Amino acid sequence: MSLAHLLLLLWSWGSLRAFDLVEKENIFQKVPCPAFLMFDNAAYLADMTFELPCRCKPEEVTAVVWYYQEHIGSLHTRVLTDFDGRVMVDSGQVRVGSSMLARFSIRMFSLLVFRAQPEDSGLYLCGTRHGDYFYAYDVDIQSSQEMVAAFTDKGQEPREDEELGDLHIFTTFWEWTRCDRCGVRGEQWRIGLCYLEKPGLSSRFLKNVPDVVSCGSQAVPGNLRTAAGRRRPPELMVRSCMVPCRKEAQSGLMAIFTFISKLGSKPWVPKVPIQFHKQRLGHGLIMSCPGARPEHAVAWDKDRLRLYRTSFLKGVNRSMRVFIDHGNQFHIRFAQLNDRGTYYCWRDGEMVAGFRVTVTSRGRYYASLSDPETQYALQAALVGYVLITAVFVLIHLCRCCCYFFVCCPEL
């Protein structure tokens, strides 16, 4: 056999060995289940999407079932999956206010909850169809309605910790987000959630720090849980930032369009997809950045005007017609003619979409009960009706009392 044939044979044998199958590591063989069911404490902000992995299970179990309990010891347990552990939900179809059963998904033994709400707080248990539990979570969803914002550029600082006897209430902040814009001055922020430290909490709840859990944890007594949540709402810290944009080489038809537009032979082609929307004068509009979640760094611009959170964050002023909520959505209440323009949204430092809004005062508009304006009008009419009824009843009660005491004084 010649040397060339020998080398070819050795190369072929080495190539076949390179395709040896490597078995994927099984994490369930390394994570034993506890002898007694423990609850892993986790806290999130409302409207966030989170994942709860089933960290341990017997090796012979091929499908898990997730259960939900509102509080420990509850007699009512809700099943969140079919008994084969297969439930898939398209997160793009999930809307605020959807029922809990329409906002979760099961993927690779993990439970995903989309746009979580405060009423979703409670205990989530991973087990079998026969009711055997392996792992559990104590989930606390904190509302963003009363969130307090602090702007470091204005010298504002987060709230100080509170000491009430042996109770210590404080805020734990997440990491800073990415800069929401690039090439221009942007902003970044971090979310702070309420936590407390109290000796003597239940040992069945897993804690990263001894005797420290989130304020809405089931380890905290009910009356103390409510009081702590009211005294310490979530916090938001905002600061300025400046980062350069990543240079991406243009290729194909887009590069030709850009070159021609620089020569003035063709109008400018936008860098991001543009959606066109016609808005009726005096009605509200809410815009969401495609693919964005509350934990993302999202920014909004109107044409060349930067809409910074220091001026447009919800709650900065008591009466705001145009604002950005804590879920990164852009709101226009009672649209005016000067609201027309192109609104751009940034996500994690990259411009991703634009909305060209035109405001018109003509055309028919069919109101529905889902419209915020219709709900506001109905609420105002109902409140007015209740007030008028209360005044009417009060007047007649006064007349009856006067008649009773004047005509029947001996009684």
Automatic annotation (TrEMBL):
Keyword Protease: no
Keywords assigned by UniProt, alphabetized: Glycoprotein, Membrane, Signal, Transmembrane, Transmembrane helix
PROSITE patterns assigned: IG_LIKE
Domain Ig-like: 34-142, 267-345
Transmembrane regions listed in the UniProt entry: 382-406
Cellular component GO terms held in the UniProt record: membrane
UniProt subcellular location: Membrane
Range of residues in the leader sequence: 1-18
Family annotation (InterPro entries): FAM187A/B, Ig-like_dom, Ig-like_dom_sf, Ig-like_fold, Ig_sub, Ig_V-set
Keyword Transmembrane helix carried by entry: yes
Membrane topology: Single-pass type I membrane protein
Major localization listed first in the record, in broad terms: membrane
Family: Belongs to the FAM187 family.
The protein's name in its UniProt record: Family with sequence similarity 187 member A
Organism field: Sarcophilus harrisii
Organism ancestry: Eukaryota, Metazoa, Chordata, Craniata, Vertebrata
Gene name in the database record: FAM187A
